[in-house]
Amino acid sequence: ELRRRQVVVVTTDPFLGLMQRPGPPPFSPRHPAREWLETHFGTVARLLEAIPHIYPAPPDPAPRVAWASFFNPAMLLDETDVQRCAEHAAALVGGDAARPRWLFVLAQEDYGAQAGRLGRATFEALLVARLHDADTAHRQPVLIAPRACADALRATGRVPSNAVMVPFCSQAQFHSLLMSAEQVFYWNIFTNSAPARLINRLPAAFFDVGHMAHAMPPLLELGVRSYYPGAKLVPLDQRAPLVP
């Protein structure tokens, strides 16, 4: 229908062309949903194969589809932009706009993956401990996480009093928190928001490679080579205390 209307159509591809490569599907044989993933995403990849693919960075090696990547200069912030983000973030979570914050970003898929690998209670206890690390370092801890996770942490009664847990916020609010935080911690190296931090030379740290890399082991090497060329990404040990 879109073609009939002469509407230009493009698609993204989080798998960096892996679904178009010959050979067996790249999903881990240990993944409990492997059969569904292979069927679903295999079908989607075939349906979208003829549509141009847009990538955040040039995939290495290039996929066997028509593709392009480009840089968006609007991602670059000046000092006024950063100050505006800090003011918006302070209005959202309270406190002084100049007070340093550590932002923890946990997606639903990675919350489930960590709970499955470590046990829900163990992972939530580690998360509470890392929030306390921020408090001890005189940084305000801010956690963006699924509501179930935030509720579980509150139920422990051990969350720092100055910690803010955000189960949902708008993209504009998230961007303000993201770009004004002193440090941001992720559980996924392929998170879509990390490039905005790194392009602006702001630090980002990772506790794990993330659900995508665990589900598709070949994606880890390809993704690091494509998105983080020349960098060696070593995940932090989330069992170890965080210090400035």
Shape: globular
Structural class: alpha/beta
Portion of residues in beta strands equals: 5-15%
Spatial separation of the terminal alpha carbons: 54 Å
Low-pLDDT segments, ≥5 res:
none
The overall strand count is: 8
Major sheet description? 5 strands, parallel
The portion of residues assigned to helices is 40-55%
- Average residue pLDDT: 92
Strand order of the largest sheet: 6-5-4-7-8
Number of helices: 9
Rg measurement, Å: 20 Å
Q: Topology as H/E string?
A: EHEEHEHHEHEHEHEHH
What topology does this entry show?
Layout: E1 11-12, H1 34-47, E2 53-55, E3 67-69, H2 79-93, E4 101-105, H3 108-118, H4 120-136, E5 140-144, H5 147-156, E6 164-166, H6 171-180, E7 183-186, H7 194-199, E8 204-206, H8 211-215, H9 217-227
Parallel strand pairs: 1-2, 2-3, 4-5, 4-7, 5-6, 7-8
What does the model show?
The protein is of the alpha/beta class. The chain has 9 helices and 8 strands. Strands 6-5-4-7-8 form a 5-stranded parallel β-sheet. Strands 1-2-3 form a 3-stranded parallel β-sheet, with no helix packed on it. Helix 1 (34-47) links the parallel strand 1 and strand 2. The protein starts with 10 loop residues before the first strand and ends in a 17-residue tail after the last helix. The mean pLDDT is 92.
